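Consider the tokenized backbone below.
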């Protein structure tokens, strides 16, 4: 993809994971929006260091799989409250791991739609006590409401 005049594309071939390592040197971030960048699991692993202060993390359409989510959950960013993971490669096991993690109860916003999930993810979310507290309008798959947020409408 070629950037337009005066713009920079993080989708340039070869940017990730080197770009992730550059971002990882940043400290004190409160919001990080990497949506639509193919960072993949390796790129997310390189990003775990600066996530300690991130409250809002948008990783939508970043080609993340279960290994990337596992790295995020292992880092357990203490300030993270809003997590956007739609449009990735997260399966039922990845969603179960998220729900079982210490991070899940701290989330006030979560987006998981357009991931290859099925009944296992739906069951994990439906059975969790916090699922009822989360409200939203978009869907996990085509059925389960889990674009969840406590944000004002």
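A designed sequence for it:
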């Amino acid at each position: 993809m070629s950037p337009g005049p005066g713009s920079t594309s993080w989708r340039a071939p070869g940017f990730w994971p080197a770009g992730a390592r550059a971002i990882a040197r940043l400290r004190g971030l409160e919001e990080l929006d990497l949506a639509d960048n193919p960072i993949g699991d390796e790129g997310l692993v390189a990003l775990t260091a600066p996530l300690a202060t991130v409250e809002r993390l948008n990783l939508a359409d970043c080609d993340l799989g279960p290994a990337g989510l596992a790295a995020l959950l292992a880092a357990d960013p203490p300030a993270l409250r809003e997590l956007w993971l739609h449009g990735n490669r997260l399966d039922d096991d990845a969603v179960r791991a998220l729900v079982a993690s210490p991070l899940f109860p701290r989330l006030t916003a979560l987006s998981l739609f357009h991931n290859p999930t099925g009944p296992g993810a739906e069951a994990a979310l439906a059975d969790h006590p916090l699922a009822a507290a989360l409200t939203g309008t978009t869907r996990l798959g085509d059925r389960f409401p889990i674009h969840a947020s406590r944000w004002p409408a």
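DSSP finds five helices and seven strands in the chain.
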